[in-house]
Amino acid sequence: MRRHKKIKPQPGSGAKAAPAWQRWWASKGPLFRVGASFIGLIILFSVISLAPFFQSLLAECVQLDAKLAGKILNGLGQGTHSAGSTVVSSRFAMTVINECSASEFVIFLWASILAFPATLRRKIVGLAFGTLAVGFVNLVRLVTLFLVGVYRPHFFTPAHEELWPGLFVIAVIFFVIGWVSWATRREQSHAAA
Amino acid sequence: MRPHKTITVFGGWFLLLFGLSLIPWPGLPTVCSDYFRAVSQCVFASQAGQRSLEFQPLDTHDTRVVIINRELMQPDGSGPVRNLDLDSFDFTWRPGSLLLALILASPVSWPRRGWALIVGGLCLQVFLLFVLGFAIWNQSTEVALVSLSPFWKQAADNISHILVGQLNIAAPFFIWLMVTFRREDFQHFFVGPSVAQ
Q: B183 and A30 in contact by Cβ < 8 A?
């Protein structure tokens, strides 16, 4: 971590220091603008996510998730089949509901990427890979939760309500930080070239 | 420090600190829930006025907020009440621990981390109280303390849903960005020091 010395204007040098609030705003203003965009986008996407057409789309995604999870679990020898948004075996059954679609993480990811100043191309790449990554993590979550339900049923509730939400937060934050790092470095190298 | 190393160190510390917060430490849910009830009681419960609120422990995690309209209560203590059950441990600890881990892992000086913890912690507390206050206000319609048309009731339900949905990730992330960083930090962390320096 580099430390920077504060340079004070010398008396009689003719340089007049900007007022403290101007220096503070110059340092924080761009962040506030990004933050305001982030909050605005979170609100916008959250409102859209409550619309009936989005809820029915979400229900379709949840059914697809259940179907994929059922196929993977079947491949793992669990003897599962899916009916609608329910994954069933002879030992355990699990219904995936709309709240389990990880839509709040997708909203967070989209708002973060779109609010951060980067080129449109890099944003599109981030949105596409980010959405796929969230979908993949959610599939892993469903498969592991089902296996926990089969082999360690007493651990199902803590894994569902405590562990996986935390792991999801870690995954999404890592993705956003990684994307910001990638987008900023690529832009800098393009600017240098 | 090189940018990729800065980010790796940040990621490592964040993973460690937030990972530790996911462990169900003995006694932690009770402490957090007690804290939640004490602060909420202090901020929202009032002995005067039409509304009365009680914050009752359900178990180590959960709290029941009992919303009472005094004007509807009978002299024998019976009458309609509205119960709002919430996971007080998750409500306080999840966003708090995320903010704590993000700030402590940030590659800035310790005095800046300290200030960020104080200011960020206060901002998060205010936001949590706002979310709780909104939820209580929204549920107060059920005991005739607030009157809303069906459209506005639906809108209030949706706002409450959005606030609770983004409480655990967007709110601490936003507060972390705002209180910890300055514009020039992004240059240092993600790109590296410029040639002129």
A: yes
> Cα distance from B76 to chain A (closest Cα, Å)?
40
Please choose, from the candidates A68, A73, A148, the residue with its C-alpha nearest in 3D space to the C-alpha of residue A101: A68
pLDDT band for A170, please (50, 70, 90 cuts).
Answer: very high
Could A181 and B4 be called an inter-chain contact, meaning their C-beta atoms sit closer than 8 Å?
Answer: yes
- Between CA A7 and CA A3 the distance in angstroms is 12
Kindly list the residues from chain B whose CB atom is less than 8 angstroms away from the CB atom of residue A23.
none
Helix intervals (H) in A51-163: 52-75, 103-115, 120-151, 156-158
Are residues A27 and B21, on separate chains, in Cβ contact within 8 Å? no
Per-residue pLDDT at A1 exceeds 50: no
* N residues, chain B: 197
A170 close to B15: Cβ distance less than 8 angstroms: yes
Nearest to B11 by CA among B101, B120, B118: B101
Distance CA B38, CA B2 (A): 46
Task: Give the containing element (helix H, strand E) for B55.
Answer: strand B51-57
pLDDT band at B5 (very low <50, low <70, confident <90, very high): confident
User: At residue A151, what are phi and psi to the nearest 5 degrees?
Assistant: -95, -30
Pairing outcome for strands B81-87 and B62-69: antiparallel
In 3D space, the residue among B162, B85, B169, B163 whose CA is nearest the CA of residue B127 turns out to be B163
Q: How confident is the model at residue B193 (pLDDT cuts 50, 70, 90)?
A: low
Q: How far apart, in whole angstroms, are the C-alpha atoms of residue B7 and residue B15?
A: 12
Q: Distance between CA atoms of A73 and A134, rounded to whole angstroms? A: 19
ipTM surpasses 0.95: no
* CB–CB contact B183 A104 (8 Å): no
Which one of B170, B177, B186 has the shortest CB-CB distance to A108? B170
pLDDT digits (tens, 9 = 90+) for B138-154: 999 988 888 888 889 88
For A79, list phi and psi in degrees, rounded to 5: 65, 45
